[in-house]
Every structure is written in structure tokens, then in C-alpha cells.
Amino acid sequence: MTSQDSLDIREVIFINERCRVDYEAMPAEVRESADQAIDALQNARPLPPKLYQPLSGTLTGINEIRLGYDDNTYRVYVTLKCPWVIMVLDAGMKKSTEGKNIPKWQKERLETRHKRRVNTARRTTLISRPTTTNARRGARNSQRRTAHE
Amino acid sequence: MSKKAPDKDWRKDPLESTPPVRGSGNFLKDRGYSDPTETRIKFDLVSIIRAVVEAKSLRQIDVVSLVGRYAPGAGISQPDISRILRGNVSGYSESRLIVILAALGHNVSIVVEPTKSHGQISVRERAAA
Question: I want to staple A33 with a disulfide (CB 3.0 to 4.6 A). Which of A49, A76, B19, B87 is the partner?
Fold first, then answer.
């Protein structure tokens, strides 16, 4: 979709100000790559597995966007549980010293933020039913994609 | 400028308890792109190029040689392909991305049709017949 004043199919929400600040703090090229990946998710376009992976275990429901840059790996964590929202949960450089594993503190933070997303959705109207045609279309596309997966 | 707590002390970070940050509904506009429409078109073209490259299991150098054969003057090198596949398209025009798609064996058409309200600019992919 799109034109200058049109709305996105899925709204992008950062879980808190820290997450947004961390996203902004990534190098410009990494941010552009992340923007492209999020834009693709908004429009239900496929992303290659090496770029986009679902997490498992206690982090089920969270997806990882993996971005290589200058010998470092940056990661953006998103959840698509709400069909009309892409919630960004965390962003920044991978800091684990244990290979591919996510550091314990970061895992805890992700779990806390993910729970907060669920509570936010239950308690408030922040993540409410889509009201625009585009948002409803986004919800339908997402359901179709989930069924496809 | 906020002061960030050390990573392991993330619970003490005052920004951690701030409410969710919502956008205007146009993500790329919020992200500060001067022309969000153009950027989205380029991002959509990248998604398609990436899917084609993956589906055909092409190496970046294969893409360069295909583009070189299709449009010898396009001036697309392997670092260009690498950047494009990573989604870094700020230095590339839509027409250069379209040339890559055509070289990869895709017809690219610009379809103009009347509409009752203001028009939308979009990239739509049609499956092969």
C-alpha cells in the first residue's frame, strides 16, 4: 500500500521510551535495514529465515530480526500477536558472550516487556479493535499468514 | 538526553516504565524519511528482489552478472547488491531497483487507473501465470 497520507496496515508501537531510544541509537544503516524489515512485516511480505526468526521456550511469541553490520550483530525483537499491531520490544547490539544465546538479563527484560504487552492489551484500549479499513485488512492478512505458517 | 542505567540494572532505568510509544500511523514518516512513499516503494522492491534471489538460490555475484547482461550501463556492483539485499536503499533510485528485478526475470509494469478519491501509490506483486 501507500501514499503520502495513508495509514499503515499495521501500526508500529515501541513498548516504552527506552526501546525507542535504543532503536534510534543503532547505526543509520542498521536502522534502515530494520525499518525495511518492519515495513515488510507491516505489508505481510516474506522475510528470509536468516533475517527473521521466531524465538522459542519462554520467549515464544517474540520474533527476532537479525542485522549484521561491521562484524557486529544487531537485533530487533518484535511481537505480532495483535494482528493490527507490530510491537517492538527491544533493539540493539547483540551482547551475549555465549554464542547465539540471549544474555540472561536481556531475556528477563524481554519476558517482562512481553508480559507487559499482554497486560497492556487486556487493560487498556491502546491495542483496540481496528477501526480503519486498512487496519482490518491488516488483521485479515495477518490471520491468513498465520494460517499459512 | 536520558541517562541510561547499566544494562544489567535495566529495572532501575526510568525510561523502562514509560508508556508505549505510538506512531502517527505512517511508520516511515515517523522514522524521519523525507519521502516515505518513495522509501516504501523501494523497500517493497527490495523485499521482492530478496525473495527472488532466495528462491533461485543466486549468489550476489550471479545477480551482478545478470544485471550486467540485461543492462550493461546500470553500474551495479557486488557491494551494491549486498547493500540492497540488506535493505539499505537510500543511495538507489526506484528505477535501478526495477532494472535489477527485470534482470532477475520479472516483468515490471506501472499501472495507472482512475479512482474516486485520491490515488494510492503501491507495489503489487502478481504470481506467475
Answer: B87
